[in-house]
Design brief:
The protein has about 325 residues and is an alpha/beta fold. It has helices spanning about 55-60, 85-90, 105-115, 120-135, 150-160, 180-195, 210, 230-240, 250-260, 280-290, 305-310, and strands spanning about 15-25, 30-40, 45-50, 70-75, 80, 90-95, 170, 200-205, 215-220, 225-230, 240-245, 265-270, 270-275, 295-300, 325-330. It folds into two domains: about 15-230, P-loop containing nucleotide triphosphate hydrolases (Rossmann fold); about 235-330, 2-Layer Sandwich (Alpha-Beta Plaits), CATH 3.30.70. The longest helix has 18 residues, at about 180-195. The radius of gyration is 24 Å and the shape is elongated.
Length: about 325
C-alpha cells in the first residue's frame, strides 16, 4: 500500500498543531493528563490509543469541539480558546461514520459544505471540479451518493473536507469497514492530496499498515502520550527479532545456538524460538553451520503491534494486524 508519508517536511511558519500541558476533566474523571504535542506543517501524523485512553477527548479539543481544562492548543498559530472560528477554517474533519446526504448528488453535497463556509460563488465551480478530480470522482459529480460504494463515499467525504482549503485534515479511522482495494484507493488519493496541496494529515487508525505510512506516530494511554516518534524509532525500542526454527534435531540446534551464538532458545512444540538483534543475519550463518536438516525458519520483526502492546499492555484488534511472519527459507 502506498501511503502519503514521505518524511517529515521542512515546514515554514508555525506548526500545524502545538499543544502544551493539555488536560481535560469531566467532573472527577481526568481523561487527558498533560499532553504535549507538536505536528509540523505537511506532516502525516498517526494518533493511536486503546479505547478509553483519551484519544477522542484529545481530538475533540484539537478540533475545538471541547475546551481544555488546562493547557494551550494552537492550530496553525491560532489559539483554540481565543480564536476558535479561525481554527475551524484551518481544519477539515472526516468522521468515522459517513455524514453525507445519500439523496443528494456528489456535487450537491459539496455545494452544501461550501455554503456553510461561505465560499465565494466566483471560485466555487473551479474548487468543486478540483477536489472531485483529486479523489477520482469527476465523472460521478451528478450521481446520487446512495449509488456510491463505501470507498467512493469515503473519497467524497475527503473531497468535501477539502472544499474550504484546510491546512490540516483530521481523519478518524478513514478506511474502517472498507475492502482492501478501496482502502488502497483512499490512501492513494491521500498521497496525491499531500503532494498537490501540502495538507497536514492527522489520523487515527487500527490498521498497522496504515500507521506505518505516517511520518510520526504518538501512542496515548491513560490520558498521557506514552510513546512518540517515527515508526522505525518506535519499533527500535522493542529491539530483537523473533526467530522460529523447525529442524530434524532441535536439541542439537539449541546447543549450537547457546555455544556458538550465545543465545538461549525456548522450545515451543516442535519449534525453537529465539530472540536476536538481527534475525536476517543470523539465519544464513546458522543454517550454514548446522549438520541437521532445517525444515523452516521464520523471522518476525518488531511491529507496531509489539510497540502498542509494550506501552499499553494490550495489542491492536486482531483484524488490524499487519503482515505476519516472513518465511525466510528452508533446506533439507
Amino acid at each position: 500500500m502506498t501511503g502519503p508519508g514521505a518524511g517529515t517536511p521542512d515546514a515554514v511558519g508555525p506548526p500545524a498543531i502545538r499543544a502544551a500541558g493539555v488536560h481535560k476533566s469531566y467532573g472527577d474523571v481526568e481523561a487527558v493528563r498533560g499532553i504535549d504535542l507538536t505536528v509540523a506543517q505537511g506532516e502525516t501524523f498517526g494518533f493511536l490509543g486503546p479505547n478509553g485512553a483519551g484519544k477522542t477527548s484529545t481530538i475533540a479539543m484539537l478540533c475545538t469541539l471541547a475546551r481544555p481544562t488546562a493547557g494551550t492548543i494552537e492550530i496553525a498559530g491560532h489559539d483554540t480558546r481565543t480564536d476558535p472560528d479561525r481554527v475551524r477554517r484551518e481544519i477539515g474533519l472526516i468522521f468515522q461514520q459517513t455524514t453525507l446526504d445519500p439523496d443528494l448528488t456528489a456535487a450537491e453535497n459539496l455545494r452544501f459544505h461550501a455554503d456553510l463556509y461561505a465560499l465565494p460563488r466566483t471560485t466555487l465551480r473551479s474548487r468543486l471540479d478540483s477536489v472531485l478530480d483529486l479523489v477520482g470522482l469527476a465523472d460521478r459529480r451528478d450521481d446520487f451518493v446512495r449509488t456510491f460504494s463505501g470507498g467512493m463515499q469515503r473519497r467524497l467525504e475527503i473531497a468535501r473536507g477539502l472544499m474550504h482549503r484546510p491546512r490540516l485534515l483530521f481523519l478518524d479511522e478513514p478506511t474502517v469497514g472498507l475492502d482492501p482495494h478501496s482502502r488502497a484507493q483512499v490512501w492513494a488519493h491521500l498521497a496525491e492530496l499531500r503532494r498537490r496541496e501540502a495538507t497536514t494529515l492527522f489520523l487515527t487508525t487500527h490498521y498497522l499498515e496504515e500507521a506505518e505510512q505516517c511520518d510520526r506516530i504518538a501512542i496515548i494511554d491513560a490520558g498521557r502520550i506514552v510513546a512518540q516518534g517515527t515508526p522505525e524509532e518506535l519499533k527500535s525500542v522493542i529491539g530483537a527479532d523473533h526467530v522460529e526454527l523447525r529442524t530434524e534435531d532441535n536439541a542439537a540446534v539449541a546447543t549450537v545456538l547457546r555455544e556458538k551464538f550465545g543465545l538461549e532458545p525456548a522450545a515451543d512444540g516442535d519449534a525453537l524460538r529465539v530472540r536476536t538483534k538481527d534475525g536476517a543475519k543470523l539465519v544464513p550463518v546458522l543454517c550454514a553451520g548446522l549438520d541437521v536438516p532445517v525444515y523452516e525458519v521464520t523471522v518476525t520483526r518488531p511491529s507496531l503491534d509489539d510497540v502498542f502492546l509494550h506501552h499499553t499492555g494490550r495489542g491492536l484488534d486482531a483484524e488490524a494486524l499487519g503482515a505476519g511472519p516472513v518465511t525466510v527459507g528452508a533446506r533439507s
